[in-house]
Amino acid sequence: MSTQSTPIIVFGASGRVGSRICALAMNDPSFTLVAAIVRDGSALAGRSSVAGRDDAPKLVNTGEFTGFGAVDRAVLIDFSSDDGTREALSVALSMNASLLVGTTALSDPTMASMRAAAGRAALLITPNTSFGVAALSAAVQAVARSLGAGFDLSIVESHHAMKKDSPSGTALRLARAAREAGALLRDDQIVSTRGGDVIGEHTVRFAGPGEYLELTHLATSREVFALGALRAAAWLSGRAPGLYTMEDALGLPA
Ligand SMILES: NC(=O)c1ccc[n+]([C@@H]2O[C@H](COP(=O)([O-])OP(=O)(O)OC[C@H]3O[C@@H](n4cnc5c(N)ncnc54)[C@H](OP(=O)(O)O)[C@@H]3O)[C@@H](O)[C@H]2O)c1
Questions:
Q1: How many whole angstroms separate alpha carbon 227 and alpha carbon 210?
Q2: CB of 38 closer than 6 A to ligand 1?
Q3: Does residue 101 have a pLDDT over 50?
Q4: Which of 208, 218, 235, 241 is deepest in the core (most CB within 10 A)?
Q5: What pTM does this model have?
Q6: Could you tell me if the CB of 104 is within 6 A of ligand 1?
Q7: What is the best residue among 60, 81, 245 to mutate for testing ligand 1's pocket, by most ligand atoms within 8 Å of CB?
Q8: Where are the alpha helices (DSSP H) in 95-182?
Q9: Which parts of the chain fold into alpha helices (H)?
Q10: 163 an active-site residue?
């Protein structure tokens, strides 16, 4: 295993998840926080990317960051928005960096740009960087295969009131996992609730005659997303061009 520190650039660095990634990267010698990018025009530009840490890179606007040049084995981590992800892709390509996209609800044009770029850069796109959700996805597949037909599936997910997409990218990923394992899951059985400061809850229920089985994941801290993003970034650093998943990074079955 490499002992070199992984150079990290965070896109969406002032956001709920992006700011945690900056803070964790600054406190872990396995990573070097090279830059922290915020939206063009953001009043936060020029401030330290980690509150109270003058040694952390200053937040920089996207436009001012272009032309930074290549950094060997760098990984750009994006937790922003659909527009932001397209900008992050162009920054990553301009510096020959790998790109980890945690942003959810990516549009078809953005996904098409990603697929087109996968011949030139290592890209990992995941709606959930937590280890627990990757394990949940594998468990859902295993249960769906064991139970076979005759069980009705539903997915219920809850998030904070500020979450923009619904259903969550994670719910859609779990739905895909179940369907790939042969389970029948109707779209109207994916249910979302929004409110308060819930970080993320997902329950997959298999309801059969006389019994039901539930698998639940609860995120109790945004730290898990930041930690998972950094772990995946370390794996992605220096990889050959291609489109990768969180399962690839964690060595789990796809
Ligand atoms: N993969 C996972 O595990 C995971 C976990 C949690 C969340 N997410 C997803 O990650 C994304 C961010 O979540 P969050 O909770 O951190 O949201 P957030 O607090 O709103 O942060 C998003 C950040 O991205 C910035 N941004 C948006 N568009 C931009 C652009 N075009 N250029 C530059 N910066 C831009 C925002 O800047 P402004 O404030 O200036 O707009 C903000 O700082 C969402 O899609 C969310 O669903 C994924």
A1: 40
A2: yes
A3: yes
A4: 235
A5: 0.93
A6: yes
A7: 81
A8: 108-117, 131-147, 169-180
A9: 16-26, 62-65, 82-94, 108-117, 131-147, 169-180, 223-236, 246-250
A10: yes
